[in-house]
Amino acid sequence: MRAGPARVAPALTYITRAAVCRLFGPFAIAGAAMSSPLLDPTSPAYKKARRQHLKSTRNRSKDIDEGWTPFRAAEKKYKARFPPPDLADVLDLALLDDGRAEEVEAGVWKGNTSALEFREIGLGDSETHDSSDRVRKRKAFALPRIPGLVILPSFVSHETQRELVRWALVDQARHPNETNLDTHYILPQDGLWNSYLRTCSQGIDDEIVQPRASSVESQTCTISEPSGPRQLISNTPASPSTYSSLSDTPKLPYSPSPTASPISTSDLVPKLRWANLGWFYHWGTKQYDFSKGQQEIGDVARAVCKEAVHNVNWADVYSGDDGEGWGDGGPDWETWTESYEPDAGIVNFYQTKDTLMGHVDRSEVCATSPLVSISLGNAAVFLIGGLTRDAPPVPILLRSGDVVIMSGPACRRAYHGIPRVLESTLPKHLRAIGGDEDWAPYAKYLSTTRINVNVRQVFPKGFDPGLDNTAVA
């Protein structure tokens, strides 16, 4: 079993056409069939990335990586635009499925099935039928390196993937659910995406969205968002013993940006980064703001999450577990098929140049119950390590329809992140399909986007938070 390197050498490496062919197969050099310009040394995008790399590294210290943790080194490796990262050490379970061969080849980027040790585990209802009555065989895998991590490749059908995309954009990224844009803009009441759809379908001019800083509504008690690079916050882990004090922590909203200008919906849509699910999450304190109540989690997302948790054979996952780290009540995985109830989460909207820094989820009172993550759109490299950034992470390639479950004490509090969204990997079933004009705006948006739906359970079974679940509109 191999792990990602602890350090990344800063030396410049030029990738020739022959090297690209070796790394990604002959399909990657097939002229017009080349899906990712960054992998074609003759493309303008590749040459531009090379120029930018030369410019940015000209005066770089040779020992720049001396202080990097193994997790940071892995982030840097896969985030690099030039030279394009070698995915030979990235686990790619889609390569085991002949039914995904076309998707893999069309997307060019490939990992390796021998990059990491894994084992197949039991999965109930492994055979399902799609809308065309075709049989789909689903599998589940565990990684011994990360106890509690379960990967379900292609768990979500093509039809349900499209349904989830519509739900995320139409129903979830709108009032009363908060998004990253609400702090800075007065968004359309029925949602930014729905306003954009009207522009597309009716051929009318874009609605102009006004900045919040210029409105009377913004004159409330707020805190200023820190300037400069994003600050790392090491928040106190939530637990039954810390719940009361964390709940009482003031959670003031951020001040709207004073430099935001009026902007069209078409230009604002690509700036959407997240939408809240269930209990409201306060990004400034990295704690839940229970005073705002709880919104419903959409039926389609809830159904996928519960189906995944209910079908995994958890006895296979935790065979040989010593019970360490589960808390006073001991391991609770035996009850998950009955007790798991998703009640909070985030929908992330990544553009191809976006990343998610390595972090730990410490906000849930229940630190062991399953966190279910659904990948939609373009593929991405997912890193997951240990309880500190000093543990070398394992890299996994996640494609549209894949589901990841993080569970148990070793996995739920492990550092994880997304250093790279892999451009030009949108599968055929999410592209524009002839005759389906309604899907065209979604396909256009998804061409440069990855959507991740991650849902978790905040409270452990039997814990009474003493809250009114009624959402505040």
From TrEMBL:
What ranges does the record list as Basic residues composition bias? Answer: 47-59
What one GO molecular function would you report for this record?
metal ion binding
Q: Which UniProt keywords apply?
A: Dioxygenase, Iron, Metal-binding, Oxidoreductase
Q: Which residue ranges are recorded for the region named Disordered?
A: 44-66, 217-263
InterPro entries in the cross-refs: Alkb, AlkB-like, AlkB-like_sf, Oxoglu/Fe-dep_dioxygenase_dom
What is the cofactor note? Binds 1 Fe(2+) ion per subunit.
What range(s) does the Fe2OG dioxygenase domain occupy?
341-459
Query: Record's Gene3D superfamilies?
Result: Alpha-ketoglutarate-dependent dioxygenase AlkB-like
Leader peptide range in chain numbering: none
What's one GO-annotated cellular component?
Answer: cytoplasm
* Regions of compositional bias (Polar residues) in chain numbering: 232-248
The organism's superkingdom is given as Eukaryota
> SUPFAM superfamilies, per this entry?
Clavaminate synthase-like (SSF51197)
Q: What is this protein called?
A: Fe2OG dioxygenase domain-containing protein
Instruction: Give the species this sequence originates from.
Output: Dentipellis fragilis
Q: Lineage in the entry? A: Eukaryota, Fungi, Dikarya, Basidiomycota, Agaricomycotina
